[in-house]
Design a protein that fits this description.
alpha/beta; Aspartate Aminotransferase, domain 1; two-stranded parallel sheet; 7-stranded mixed beta sheet; homodimer; Aspartate Aminotransferase, domain 2
């Protein structure tokens, strides 16, 4: 018998309260009963996004909502500025290019946050840029970007700011309206604690103006259709009903905990994880580390794929490896969503054992102790 | 206390065996464990679709897979022939038009099946038509089209045949390869007995050839990306993991029952439902009635919306009303997916009581008796 633990940055663990919602008999999505559930979901999504704007729900992975942001807000030949500092930044570029949007990339070294000044420079040089696409937490590198500063920079321009907060929302501060983010995109299987299958996008008035003139083709991902549905507590197309019902439970849990407490919990877990890792002599990959997952450089002489495999096969913990050109060079431990004190304790103690199993000289408990100093009651 | 029964043509009832799969701890979609589940799912989807071709899975409603069929197989300015005999036929036209595909519609009176000869005529007149889009069961009208004959007609042309079998698959005969259907589209919340959120498309070699030259923009719904993922027992983007795990259970149930038995069961239920309805003096709306749901004309002097509401409020049974211009004029009882003998008995007995409650002179048990004659053991 080996218990299994999921510590990947998505899908994340699903609380039993949400899992049990799946066993309720399925209801029809055009009934009053469903509308009331979806109304509650939307109210709580606004709370979580910190927005007074509509938050649209799509039945898709997060990528579907990213594509929705591109095809609904831009027109053929429009210019877009993309921050490309990891796999998910690259995805913005790829989507834009597929639709004939003219992309300027700000290429950021993987592991670093974007220098907001570069965005300012690019917009001043070309104020006809219609949209800036960036990422709150670049999950592939464990980096958090300074969205607050980027929002201040973009707001005075006619340009809209679109942020991929798929893995960041509910883990990292993201006050959408206050930070002047026009479109905030998220997904269900990260901080929102339910399985994958739903994606979200908040849309500001500034962004809706672009939507009205957008000429890129869309049907299933139409934001205008989604908004029309939302006005009747509905989606444009048949939604993933069971996921919406489960989401209603996790959003209620999040309101009960309170957004401030949720963010503080993630900050504490992230700090503890980093402290544990560095106490073991390992190095963080991210120069500006995010609170949803910790990216760790693979020590010289070891292979990241083997470390990931040992976590899983020998100890039952699923973590993430590196993507793209850093595959094998980093591994990532997530503390995102339904995660608490002992998830970090387990992860760090597992890391100690895996390093020892890999022939490294490890003082057992040293990393755990460093984490405990931050995890103990009373610490923030 | 009022028990609730779902008899709409999607979402349909979910067997407990599938619901319980949702309470298993969520697994990561890049693990060997998930790949093995998805491999089984794909093997069983091929069985159900009766195809040796790949069946692609998208996390979306059925409409997402319909859009995938258009944007992956056609190019701008291509010609398409669309059978438009209900709301879902109309959807093919709408999607094609959004993407600049030149559409010729064959408008069929709602409630009637398309006359296959009209397709032959249109293709002979213009052999440059790239694709014919039609519907197996047009859920909005309760009609089944003669896909077998349409397949024979289209096959000799360079044209591909795309069939929306979203509500029909697993209820109505649909041997994809044998009937020369190039793309068969389906969804999870109908005959496949799980909640909405997954959509499917089988793709023939003839269709893949068109995919290679297609210039319409796509990213999330890319079939080429989906096929690349499938070659590694994966999807291109994060799938709705929990729905895939539940689908694995219902597909196993379907293999245990056997496709022939499943289709015979749906045929028996549909015949019994029709017999019950007509024994009560009501008229069927569909001239060529499908086996997934029965569309019934609202008797003179009554309102379909009221009938639907009485089914639900007074007796706990969710049925469907009419859509578009036939709203209020028909109501639809589904016997699709996880449905058996007593679902039909309940529906017909409820219909008797609702008619009586509406002031009609009804002989209680008369409709039920007519249904029983077909439902009793030994009858087909």
């Amino acid at each position: 018998m080996q218990k299994k633990y999921l510590m990947s940055p998505g899908p994340t663990q699903v609380p039993l309260r949400a899992s049990l919602a799946f066993t309720d008999p399925i209801i029809h999505h055009r009934t009053q009963e469903y509308k009331e559930i979806f109304r509650q979901v939307n109210e709580n999504l606004k709370y979580l996004f910190c927005t007074s704007n509509d938050v649209l729900t799509f039945t898709s992975s997060g990528t579907g909502a990213m594509e929705a942001a591109v095809v609904n807000l831009l027109s053929k030949g429009d210019k877009a500025l993309v921050v490309r500092g990891g796999k998910f930044g690259e995805r913005w570029s790829e989507i834009c290019e597929v639709y004939g949007v003219e992309v300027t990339n700000i290429d950021v070294e993987w592991g670093c946050a974007v220098e907001p000044g570069l965005i300012e420079e690019a917009l001043k040089k070309d104020p006809s840029i219609k949209a800036v696409f960036t990422t709150l937490c670049e999950t592939s590198t464990g980096v958090v970007n300074d969205i607050k500063r980027i929002g201040e920079i973009v707001a005075p321009f006619p340009t809209i700011l679109v942020v991929d907060a798929i893995s960041g929302l509910g883990a990292q501060e993201m006050p959408t309206d206050q930070w002047k983010v026009d479109v905030c995109v998220s997904g269900s299987q990260k901080g929102l604690m339910i399985p994958p299958g739903l994606a979200f996008a908040s849309v500001s008035e500034k962004a809706w103006k672009l939507a009205e003139s957008s000429d890129l083709p869309k049907y299933y991902l139409s934001m205008i259709k989604a908004r029309k549905g939302l006005s009747k507590d509905q989606t444009a197309f048949t939604p993933a009903v069971s996921l919406v019902c489960a989401l209603n439970e996790t959003l209620k849990m999040m309101r009960e905990e309170g957004l401030g407490n949720i963010l503080a919990r993630h900050e504490r877990l992230a700090k503890a994880c980093r402290a544990g890792v560095t106490a073991l002599g390992l190095e963080l990959f991210a120069k500006s580390p995010a609170n949803n997952c910790t990216a760790i450089k693979v020590p010289e002489g070891l292979d990241g794929k083997v470390i990931k495999s040992k976590f899983s096969k020998d100890y039952g913990i699923t973590i993430a490896g590196g993507q793209g050109h850093i595959e094998g060079k980093i591994f990532r431990i997530s503390h995102l969503g339904y995660a608490d004190t002992f998830d970090v304790v387990m992860a760090i103690s597992c890391l100690e054992m895996v390093l020892s199993d890999s022939g490294r000289d490890v003082e057992f408990g040293k990393g755990v102790a460093a984490a405990q100093e931050i995890l103990k009651k009373g610490e923030v």
